[in-house]
Write a structure and sequence with these properties.
Elements: H1 24-30, E1 36-37, H2 40-49, E2 53-59, H3 70-81, E3 85-91, H4 112-126, E4 138-141, H5 143-146, H6 151-157, H7 164-167, H8 171-179, H9 183-186, H10 188-203, E5 207-211, H11 215-229, E6 234-238, E7 251-252, E8 255-256, H12 266-274, H13 281-288, H14 293-300, H15 307-323, H16 325-336, E9 340-341, E10 358-359, H17 360-365, H18 373-381, E11 385-387, E12 390-391, E13 398-399, E14 408-413, E15 417-423
Parallel strand pairs: 2-3, 2-5, 3-4, 5-6, 9-15
Antiparallel strand pairs: 1-6, 7-8, 10-13, 11-12, 11-14, 14-15
Helix pairs in contact: 10-11, 12-15, 12-16, 13-14, 13-15, 15-16
């Protein structure tokens, strides 16, 4: 699939006053997107000459992308706003093999039908961020050219350009050599390199981007274009995003934080960003929003309780871009309507003092998590009530101010519904 697809919800298009030409890399550098580049000066000149087609690949290993992918999607959106053409490559073909990058064991091989369904879902998600009208961006699936490959011809024409010795120097393969690397996985880098060559030939693609863990694969594709076509192409990677507290970016307490609302609710998504460590707020605003850098710097300088304003802005902007204005508003209002203890220690609507403790059944019944005390009682009996990730199994238990962490108590019903109580 390529070109001609209509824009979805929050898709972006070039905006008046957007930096163009030689300013492009300066914008990306200022926002923290650039880690490694094959030739930064030459790429800067290429981008200054006019619109450049570039690509980032997304394998279809799940029915939804997660926030670990968002940095690359935002990078594409920023470049499109600055006049360049993104190619979003969906890995309907490469997913059949599985990328060994960053993994200690082989990925589970998915049925082709499952891969096709994942591709369709991811296609819709990417469409929220990019403008596909009038070929301003392209959406392609590499199964189109990988699935019908003639193996003998491919080995002769493409495989001949790869050195096994050099491939084994890349960190991905070095790590897997210790735990076992299958032959099918060993082919992944060759296929990804071939993707770059195909996109160069079809669309004039001159730049491939990805996370730092993709450097070896991207450089191999760049070298393949040079060997086969005698042309210059470029590689650029971004730093992998990790939180300052050491947690892997994209993980919530229950697992990956998905862009699909059926897997991660908009409220849960909002709360993740609302509760990131203070030290991460500026970095995440720079990489995951379109707010002006000056405004972001000002928000990042806030301290103590004031930093919560910056976190709320981050959470709102993120939820709006992924789930739309209405869901962002609802999530923000739900977060703001959390209990606030007054000077006397009363928690929301009266009927109990947090200092003395509120019966857990009463507390859950007074939130949006349960419509009645009987429902709250069933929730506890069925093992679905949690306070700060502590499972509640005592119907006669209570929750008080002593349960607060950093001035908050987090209630959870089941796996995905949360309610935050703020102690003020």
């Amino acid at each position: 699939m390529s070109g001609g697809e209509s824009s979805k919800g929050g898709a972006v298009s070039p905006t008046e006053g957007s930096p163009r030409g030689g300013d492009v890399l300066s914008v990306l550098e200022e926002r923290g997107f650039i880690s490694q580049c094959s030739d930064l000066d030459s790429l800067r000149r290429l981008l200054a000459e006019g619109p450049v087609s570039f690509y980032i690949g997304f394998d279809a290993t799940a029915q939804s992308l997660h926030i670990g992918h968002l940095q690359q999607i935002m990078l594409m959106a920023h470049l499109q706003r600055m006049g360049h053409r993104p190619i979003a490559l969906l890995g309907g073909g490469t997913t059949r093999i599985g990328d060994p990058t960053g993994r200690s064991e082989a990925r589970k091989i998915l049925p082709i039908e499952a891969i096709d369904a994942n591709v369709a879902a991811i296609r819709e998600q990417i469409g929220r961020f990019l403008d596909f009208s009038e070929d301003r961006a392209l959406l392609v699936d590499n199964s189109e050219w990988l699935a019908p490959l003639n193996y003998l011809e491919f080995l002769r024409d493409i495989g001949v350009h790869f050195s096994v010795n050099r491939m084994l120097t890349f960190e991905t393969y070095k790590m897997r050599m210790e735990t076992g690397l299958s032959f099918i996985e060993f082919n992944y880098q060759i296929l990804q390199s071939y993707d770059y060559l195909v996109l160069f030939r079809r669309y004039g693609c001159r730049l491939q981007m990805g996370g730092d863990d993709q450097w070896g694969n991207i450089v191999s594709g760049m070298d393949l274009i040079r060997r086969v076509e005698g042309a210059e192409a470029f590689a650029l990677t971004s730093p992998l995003v990790t939180r300052s507290d050491g947690k892997k970016m994209g993980k919530s307490e229950g697992g990956a934080l998905f862009l699909d609302a059926s897997l991660t609710s908009p409220y849960e998504f909002y709360q993740y960003w609302r509760n990131v460590p203070d030290a991460d707020v500026e970095t995440f605003l720079l990489r995951f929003t379109f707010l002006p850098v000056g405004e972001i710097r000002a928000l990042g300088r806030l301290e103590d309780s004031e930093i919560n304003r910056a976190k709320e802005r981050l959470a709102y902007e993120m939820t709006k871009s992924v789930h739309g204005d209405d869901e962002a508003e609802r999530a923000r209002e739900a977060s703001r309507s959390a209990f606030s203890g007054g000077a006397s220690g009363q928690a929301g609507g009266g009927g109990g003092d947090l200092g003395e403790g509120i019966p857990v059944v009463d507390l859950f019944a007074r939130t949006a998590l349960c419509s009645s005390k009987s429902e709250a009682r069933r929730l506890v009996q069925q093992g679905g009530a949690f306070v700060n990730d502590r499972k509640i199994d005592d119907l006669d238990g209570s929750v008080g101010a002593s349960d607060a962490r950093d001035g908050q108590i987090l209630l959870r019903a089941g796996k995905k519904r949360y309610f935050r109580i703020v102690i003020t």
